[in-house]
Amino acid sequence: MSVDNNLSYKVFSFLLPLSCYALFFLLSAQIFKLFTRRKLFTKSHLLILKRYYWLNILLPIICTAIATIFVTIEGGIAILIAVHFILGIFVFFLAEIFRQGLHLQDEQDLYI
Known about the structure:
By secondary structure, the chain is mainly alpha-helical. The protein has three helices and no strands. It is 81% helix and 0% strand.
């Protein structure tokens, strides 16, 4: 089977990872941008963090499971899945800190 004419190889070994990493870097840029804002603890920032940790926890596992059906998966992909999972857990804790900060900020706004 020729790799050049194999549609499943092009889709699951090139386009799927490329589109997933495009989404990853788009959300990463939003994460870094939110730390430059004047008001840090907002509901929209918390939503960005939640999207980011769900993307990092679930998307690599789901994409790899789907791609396994159609193409052979290299051995190093497990390391990438683990790195994204750890990053997702870290951002989950960061989102919980933001949730607490948002709660405290809203509580403080009631007293002013």
